[in-house]
Write the structure tokens for this entry.
Amino acid sequence: MRHFLTILGHEVRMLLVSPSTYIAAVTFLAFMGFIFAGILAEFSSTPQQNSPAVAFFELFWVPVIFIVPLLTMKSISEERRLGTLETLLTTPISTGEVVLGKYGAAYLLYLSLWASTAGLFYILHRFTQDSFLLDLGPLIGGYLFIAVSGLLFVALGIFASSLSRNQAVAGIFGVVMLFGLIIGTQLLAGLATLNLESFATLKSSVEYAQVFQHLDDFSRGIVDTRQLLFYVSGASLTLILSVLGLEAKLLHS
Amino acid sequence: MSDPVSAIAVSNLVKNYAGVTAVSNISFNVAQGEILGFLGPNGAGKSTTMRILTGFLPATSGQVEICGHSVATESAAVKRLIGYMPENNPLPEDMRVSEYLYYRGRLKEMTRKQLGPRIDELLELCDLKRVRHRIIGKLSKGFRQRIGIAEAILAEPPVIIMDEPTIGLDPHQILIVRDLISRLRGRMTVIISSHILPEIEMTCDRVLIINQGRVVAAGEPAALKRELLGRARYEVDIVAESADVAGLIATIDPSLEITSETMPDAEGFRTIELSTDEDSDFSETLLRHFAADDRCRLRGLSRASPTLEDVFLAATKRSWDVVDRAGAKSEIVNPKS
């Protein structure tokens, strides 16, 4: 635990002094700003059923697929490429602590990036004072969804990083995994073949893993413990796999 | 199985990488406070052995104990006992020197209170004061190397393992590092590997030469020289009859004998080579006796002292011969079987 805090502190520090963090943050905020402006433009032209927050969070996957791998791809592959993993693991510190520390730092940064988008809603509130445009329910639900789902998304990014010493490979692998999880399950659920009797179990598990369905529930204020469990257990499993991946690479290095 | 005084006990260590044997059946002990030099040609298995000692790599078979703790089963305890500087000395590019040392100290479970004065002391010791606030990625090789050494001895562990610590240093910096390592003598057990042989000879109490994953020679540098290269030799530039010289040296020490002599040159001087089993230096006695004797005219006398380089070449050559012969044999056997 002591080592975890040491590594977490170190990683957060390194993220805060690294220019790439700020580039990622600015790009992210600019992108989210455009999306937000687009949504507002639509709201001003035609009356809508949902509040802007619902429409805003519906597009969460676009930044997630690109920002999460950007934040995490460096974490373990860089250490391995430079060889500093060797000095790191010859101190009294376990591979689990290394992975957790890096995961924690990336997750905190991910959360703070999303937290900064709250500024967009603040500006909206400041200039419109419209209670419909600023419905607190979907807003809190949306941020809660981002925080919970981020556990798994960031873990996937760390896992991708633990598999390769090449940052680019880790990044691409992260994008592919996130795409598979978010969009892939959506596409899979739409397949007619799944309605066959023999695919019943597969159908139910794909429905269970539908990220958009989770977002929908969170936005309505439904916090289902099954969904919480899905993300928490998924994140734990992915992190365990990262630790195993790291150790396997050492064994066969 | 390991006696309690030895800081490092390695027995029958074997490491295979996907069919290639990097280390085959190495055994050695290092006493507490001893400085061991690890020599061997490239690819001999030095770095692999060192990595296994630190617990970073698992061994295929065999036992390694650091201060009585098995590396395989008590790796957490072992990691608290060692300071390790890997080959090529990897360092993070984007940290400042003092920041890096602080971070490493925290990882090695040092308290904040200990760390401040210890880092100051190390920066002074390794001549890094000027660069303490510089970014590591922008420093030259010599500085980076010394940061690695400072990091290895940071937590004052009882065992220090350094893979080629003096590579890429200029002679002045090598001197600093040599002093630094000598200062650890008696307090810490040190294993260093190096290609710079005079370096090893000057700093190390004992030398271990490995080749092809096998120990080919081990012992104190002086003993190794005797074992591998035989006796001490003297070259005498002299005008004298061989019989007179033989008679003269017999009176000095019975172990002295003439091993070779050359034809006289234009002025009648010949080079006579003498050898002895004794360790003591006869140069002065020989000089006095030859000068005092009327029958001979002495022009020069020198003691041929073999360097560790000769030992290294002899030891590795010997093992290549063994390996070549084994290889040749198997080639003949294989087609039949």
In short: Chain A has a mean pLDDT of 87. Residues 136-163 of chain A form the longest helix (28 residues). DSSP finds 13 helices and no strands in chain A.
